[in-house]
Amino acid sequence: MNAELLDSTYHGNPFERDKFRFVASMDTLKQDHLLSSLENAEIDFVVVDKAHKLSKGTDRYKLSEVLSRRTKFLYFLTATPHRGDNEDYIARMRLLDPYVTDVESARYLIIHLKDDVIDLDGKEVFPPRESRTINVPITEEERRIHEILDEFIAKKLEQARLSGDRREINSARFLGIILRKRASSSLHALNVSLENRVKRLSWDESIDVEEPIKRLKEAEEEFDEAEKEKRE
Known about the structure:
By secondary structure, the protein is mainly α. The protein folds into two domains: 3-116, no CATH class; 140-231, no CATH class. It has ten helices and two strands. The chain has a two-stranded parallel ribbon. α4 links the parallel β1 and β2. The longest helix has 24 residues, at 140-163. The protein is globular, with a radius of gyration of 22 Å. Mean pLDDT is 79; it is low at 1-5.
């Protein structure tokens, strides 16, 4: 979408026209002045490409909530509807159906899986695939490290809940997510993260963690490893 078209100073609110059709990036529409224009729009049909980028807690998700309220039909396109986080997945599915309660109840919303794609002659486009679960045993030392990590995260969460500070609770939860991700990557990655944490234990606890958390989620969506490391 051309940004000039959205300049209400010269063209008025484009979403108030009887007929309009736009192709726009999420990051264009998530701007506050456009969100406010969309709040009163009456839209027939919205198609969101790369819908997995609508992660809960981001500005893109805020945009999707507005679009969900203002459109009659909402259609998501994505190759990765579920990215390993049930809570994030359910939040996204509730944009399509607010009565979804769990992964199982959201199954009917997903149509046209890769295995079902056919060409005009009715032939399968993608070759059949076989998935297997391979169990990789861990050593006793590795198991103990994971136990210690779980104990540490549980202790931090309990301390945060006792404080009653919402920012501290969010910070503790996100710390747990980061450390578990690093541990699942490799014990070396976990070690680096823990060393960095030790170096920064004197950080100002009054710092608002909401913005860094939001930016980290967006960096993950864009597969921006440099930004992701920075935010972690």
